[in-house]
Design goal:
The chain has two domains: 17-77; 113-256, no CATH class. Helix content is 46%, strand content 24%. It is an alpha+beta fold and 261 residues long. The chain has helices at 13-91, 135-138, 207-225, 228-246, and strands at residues 113-129, 140-155, 164-167, 170-175, 179-185, 191-197, 251-256. It has four helices and seven strands; from the N terminus they run αβαβββββααβ.
Length: 261
């Protein structure tokens, strides 16, 4: 082998030109691809904008049409409502109540009752008639929601001097037994919740009256079972004890009068 330096490699001008063209072509393709992607996004955004505007226009037109239609049928609705009101008034007229101007007072009696407790009771009463196999034809059934009050206390008219005795500075008082003074319905709060009549009957005209009478009995019974008389006795003794202490009797002992025959 001969010594010496290796000859320097000289680039081929043709190869350099081809490489330069390939690079330019690659850049051009990249530019065109980016440009196409940009145009695609612009197109998509444009379509979305157009769809949004079109949707808004359609919704606005529908709302406007709905308002116009509502305005157009409003007189019809008003007329229908007016007719329905008149029909309802015809089918369910407001009752006219004419009290007799003549009033008869059947009796007057003085009272000395000490009311010591009041119960407010609610009771649901079901009243029915003809609920057999043909109940759907001839039956009558109602549900009454009854509100009532029961008042109890001591009748001081039955307390006489014979029932009072003072021994060794102690006042002995024989009180009458407590009793129910009033048991009645609150008509402002009591109402018929539901009533079903058969297809071939107009209903029993006395059914609601019977239901109200039964409700009064049940309300009084509920108060008695809850101990209204015992509480009336305790409240009455407490009230009279304070009253008699203020009248100068330092010690008062209460007892029960024997039951009347």
């Amino acid at each position: 082998m001969c010594g010496g330096k290796a000859a320097a490699h000289t680039p081929n001008p043709l190869v350099s030109e081809i490489a330069s063209k390939d690079t330019s072509y690659l850049k051009y393709n990249t530019f065109m691809a980016d440009n196409n992607n940009l145009k695609g996004w612009v197109f998509v955004i444009g379509v979305l904008v157009i769809l949004g505007v079109a949707s808004y226009s359609i919704v606005s037109a529908l709302q406007q049409s709905a308002r116009q239609a509502q305005q157009a049928i409003q007189p019809v609705n008003d007329l229908t409502s007016s007719v329905a009101t008149q029909v309802s008034q015809f089918l369910h007229p407001t009752p006219t109540i004419l009290p007799d101007p003549v009033t008869i007072i059947s009796g007057i009696r003085s009272l000395a009752r000490l009311e010591t407790i009041q119960y407010s009771v609610e009771k649901v009463i079901t009243a029915e008639t003809n609920q057999g196999p043909f109940g759907f034809l001839f039956g009558d059934r109602l549900i009454l929601v009854a509100h009532g009050i029961v008042i109890a206390g001591i009748d001081l008219e039955r307390l006489t001097p014979e029932h009072l005795e003072v021994r060794d500075g102690v006042l002995y008082v024989e009180l009458p037994e407590p009793e129910i003074f009033l048991s009645t319905l609150d008509n402002d709060r009591s109402y018929v919740y539901n009533r079903d009549t058969g297809l071939l009957t107009r209903g029993n005209i006395n059914l609601e009256t019977d239901a109200r009478r039964a409700a009064e009995d049940e309300i009084e019974k509920a108060a008695l079972e809850d101990g209204i008389l015992n509480q009336a006795q305790v409240n009455g003794e407490n009230y009279l004890y304070r009253l008699l202490r203020d009248l100068g009797y330092p010690e008062v002992i209460f007892s029960q009068q024997p039951p009347e025959d």
